[in-house]
Structures are given as structure tokens and as C-alpha cells.
Amino acid sequence: MKAFIISDSHGWESELEKVVNRHREEVDILIHCGDSELEGGHSALKGVKVVKGNCDFGSSFPDDLKETVQGVTIYVTHGHLYNVKMTHVPLSYRAEEKGAQIACYGHSHVAGAFMENGVIYINPGSIRLPRNREEKTYCICEYNKSNATVTYFDYNGNVVEDMVYHFELN
Question: What CATH architecture does domain 2-168 belong to?
């Protein structure tokens, strides 16, 4: 299973569409973790699973979603409802409730991935307004029975060399 994950594009339209279209044909699912600040029918979000962020006022997007792709359960939320800027614990409870193997979130604009209790947590960072790094990031997660790899890319599609995470699965 291969998932494209992006977040916090904050009103970017053509830029978001360019990045999504770059990977559209090579992944099994396209995910936006909120704060797109776009309407649901916008062409930049065509075919993308999107959740509502704290800046998505009046949006019809759901607060969270659960998708199963090739047997892998993915939980997606923006993160503001789970206080992710302070701790990942409330998010971990929700991911466990949903039976997720992968939990995707945004909100903090801080890119990173880690594994805890068998769940891989992925924050793709922000494609528009990154924090703690200069690169504007998104990522792709490749997940199979024995391992998972989360690779981060900058806006131009270059791999961010120090942000490739490998996880061994049980």
C-alpha cells in the first residue's frame, strides 16, 4: 500500500494541485490532513480524502476519517481536536479506537513520523508554512506486511534526505 499525505496548504490552489498530480498515478490513496482552506469540489482536491482543519471554516469536510486500503487501516484527522501541538496521547487513544495501523495528522506544521504500540504516526508538515524546518514538506508512506517507509519530499519533489523513516512491523 502506498499513501500520499499532505497537510496545511492554507489556500494554495495551483501549487497544491501540482504536487498532488505529481504523485497521483503512483499511489493507492491521496490524503490531505486539513487546513486546505478550499471547498470540497475544488479541482486541487480531486480524488483526495480530506479532513477539516481549524482554518477550514464552513467546510463540509469530516473532522476525521478512517480508510482501509489493501488491508491497511488509516486514520486521518487534522489534530486540533486532539491537542497534537502539546502531546500525541489523545490522538493515540483515537487511533487505537479506530483500529488504525497508520494515523495521519497535521495542525502543528512540524513534519515527522514515529511508531508507538504498533501504530505509525505521520505528520507531513506543511506544504506552505513549515515549522522547525526550512523545507515545505509532504510525504509518501509505503506499507507492506513486514515494514513501512515514510519518505518526505520538498515542494519541488526532491527527497528530504534526513527525513526517511523505516519501521519494522510485527
Answer: 4-Layer Sandwich (3.60)
